[in-house]
Hints:
By secondary structure, the chain is of the alpha/beta class. The protein has a single domain (about 15-185, about 215-260), classed as Rossmann fold. The chain has helices at about 5-10, 10-15, 20-25, 35-50, 75-80, 85-95, 110-115, 130-140, 185-190, 195-200, 215-235; strands spanning about 30, 50-55, 100-105, 120-125, 145-155, 160-170, 245-250, 255. It has an 8-stranded mixed β-sheet, sandwiched between helices.
Amino acid sequence: MTVRDTDRHDHQVRAFGAAAQRRLRALTVAVVGVGGIGSLVVQGLAHMGAGRLIVVDPDHVEPTNLNRLAGATDVDARSETSKIEVAARLARSIDPDIAVHQLPASVLDADTWRELRCADVIVGAVDEHAPRWALNTLAVQYRRHYIDTGTLVSDESGTLDVSGHVATVTPDGPCLLCLSGYDPSQASMELDPGLTAAKRAAGYLSDAPDEPAPSVMFLNQAVAAVALGELLNIVGDWHAPRPYTLVDLGRPSLTAMHAEASPDCPACGPDSTRGLCDTAPPPCFTPPEPPPPM
């Protein structure tokens, strides 16, 4: 027997109201990338009372994930449990009634991208530009809410920078490209390994191997908390719209930044697929074939 929703969410309803709770329970939320931030978002959504989750990630648990992956155990790392299985297990341990659909793939897989069309809200917790491009395209084309998250831990300036961001794309607001949330040229290189290799050979890219990015649980928790608050604002309208929030734990501070849609944005402007839904084709994830040799 499960705890009745009226009891489980009583204190949350007292804060944000029964109508917001009903709308939250009716939502399908896709969490793309269920690593450090994404696993915490899944955990929070299960506690908050989201009705259905779609969890997307092609990766498995590794020992280096255990400092920040909510719900993961040492056994998961040894047995290489999939991250989506850990996320689903965590969500159901909190709320046995929650529906969780697992997709062990990248959002750059065309079939996976199509499956996400049924989501009301997309939360992105991805590291690279190409997945952000794909999720932004989905949100614009199908008029979905998209919450993008990310963190940065760096000491390049001589002072340790422990910060993050939450960008909120709404159906009628600026898209992630308007918010400078990804670099289209970087997305193109990630989609085309041949282009990356050519640029590296020409000296435009470093030959040094990519180092794993620093990541800590407490920063992920701060960013996930802001993202969950933005998601609740979609159903509860408890604060003014906030397209971009900077999270700086060094000061500490939260900085809300206003933004407008760019009128000539190629991703969401007049010549884009905005609102076209299935009448527009999905984006092309396959790089073009090289021309035949002369």
